[in-house]
Write a structure and sequence with these properties.
Structural class: mainly alpha
Helix content: 40-55%
Low-confidence stretches: 94-115, 447-463
Number of helices: 24
Strand content: 5-15%
Number of strands: 7
Strand order of the largest sheet: 1-2-4-5-3
Distance between the termini: 73 Å
Shape: globular
Radius of gyration: 27 Å
Mean pLDDT: 78
Amino acid sequence: RLCERGLGMEEEIEKRGKEGKNKFRPRSLSNAVWGLAKCSALMGSCSFQEETLQPFLLKLAENLSSHPWPLSGMNGREKTMTLWAYASTFPKAPSTLPSPSFSPSTVLFSSSTPPNHDPALIHGLFSAAASTLSAPNCTIRDLSTLAWSFATVSHPASCAPSLSFLSAAAAELPSSLPSPVHPRDLSTLCWSVAHLSTRSRRLEEPLLSCLSVSSAMITSSALPLSSLHTSDIVQLAAAYGVGRRDDRDALRMIYQVATGRMAEFRCWEVSHLTWVCARLYLCPSGEDVEDGADFEAFVDKAVEACTDWRGRGGPGSGLEGDEQAAANMAWSLCVLKRTDEASVRLVAAALRGAEAMGSIKPEHAHQLWQVYSLMKDSSPEVSSAISPSFASKLEGAWTNEKGRLKKSSERHSEMSKTLTLMGVSHVNEYKEDIDMAIVLTGSGGWSRPRSALPGSSGPPSASTRVALEFDGPDHYTTGPSPRALGHTHLKYRYLSLKGWSVVRVPFFVWDKIPFWASMERQRYLQRLLSTDEEIRFSEKDVSVYRSPKESVWGGKRSSRYD
C-alpha cells in the first residue's frame, strides 16, 4: 500500500516544492524508503521486489532527480539511508561484499542487475544527492555506507559532484582520528574507494590516504584484526591489492590473522586473499622475497582448505560452480609459481570446472588461458584437464583481447621515437600485448652475449625476437621501493614461453633522463639492448659500451644512473 501510494507522489513532490510548505517531510520519505528496502532484503527474492518495490523506487528516483528539494531537506544520516536503500535494491557490484547495515554473514542481494530499469535513473539520483552531501558533516559510519552505496551501484566516478564528495570522504578519515573508528567502517570505506578508483584515476590518491590510515591503525593495534569478520578482512586486503599498496607490516599482520582463522573463511574469500598475494607478488615460490614467509604460510593453508572443500563435495563446496573464485585461485597459484601436487590438482580442478560451466566471462577466460599455457608442458594433469576444443576457445578469447586497438602512452611514444632515431626498426603495440617488438633478421645479431643484458629474460636462443616493454606505474607497487606486480611477472613469463626475449624499461629509470636529452636516452637504450658496440652521434660524440665498473663508493652499479 505504501509503494502504491508512493507511485502517485510526483504531483505532491512538485506541488510542495513550489508552495514551500513543510507538510511533506523529507525525513518521512527517507524512513519509508529505508524500511521498505530493509524488509525486502530480509524477505529475500520474491514478487514484491520486482512488482512493487522497484517500480516505486525508480519512479521516486526520477522525481527526486527532477525536484531535488527533498534531498536538500534531509540530513546526512537520512541521505545515507536513502542511497543505501537504492544500492541494496539495484546492485551491480559483486554480491559477495556485504552490506554495512546488516549481518556480514548474510548475502543480501544478487549480482545480476534487476530487469526492466534504466541505470541512468539511479545514477541521476546519486549525482543529485552527491551535490548536496557534505563530508565534514557526516560521521565515519555514514561516509563508509555512502561510499559503499556509490560503489555497489557502480556509479560513474567521472561524475564531478560524486568525485568531489568521495575524495572529501577519504580526506575526512585521517581528521577523524583519534576518535573511535569502527573496524567495519574502515574496511568498507577502503574497499569502496578502491572499487571506484578502478573507474577514475582521480580517486587513487584518496585511496592511498585511506590505506595509510588503515596501515597506521593496524600496526599500532588501534584496529583489532581479530575482531573483524572474515568479509571485512577480505575487503581490507582487496583494497591493498587494488591500490597496489605494499605496506608489508600491515599486510603481514592481516595474513597472520587470516592464516590462524582459515576455518572461518568461505571459499571465495580464501580465493580473494590468495589473489591479493599474487597481485602484490608477496611470496613467489623459489624466490627469496623479504618477509614472504607469512604469506607463503597462508597460501599453503589456502590450498589445503580449498582441497578439503573439494573433498567434501556438495553444492557450493570448494571452487566448483564459482567461476570467479576458481579463475582467481588458478591464476594466483600460477603467478606464485606453485608446482606442488596439491596446487596442481587445484588448478586442474579449476580448469575442468570452467569447461563444465559451458561459457565463462572473457576476463576469466584470459586468466585460465595464461595458466594453461604456462603449466601444461610441466604438468600432465593440467594438460589433460580440458579438451582441445575448450583450450581453443580460451586461446580465441585471449587472441581477441590482445588484438584490440591500443593507444600508446606518452612515455611509450617517446621511447619509440628514440628507437627510430637510433635506426632500430620496431613495431609498436604488437600482438600478445608487446609494447615494442624488435626482430633481427639476416646478419643481425648482438654485440655481446644475451645473458649479460640487464633487465632481460628468456633463453639466448630467442635472441632474434625482442619484446621491449615499458613498465609504467601500473606495473609496480606504490611506495618508496616499487616492485613489479604479479601480472607483470606473469606476462613476461608468457612472452618468454612464446619465444620472445623480454627487455624491461622501468618508468622510474626512464624518467630520470631529461626529456630534452635525446642522446642520453639513446645511450641508455643502446646499453640496455646492446644494439652496437659503438654509436657515433658526430665526429666528436661517440658512445661506446663499457661494462659497469666498481664505483668509488664501493658496490657495483647496474647502470650509469645508479
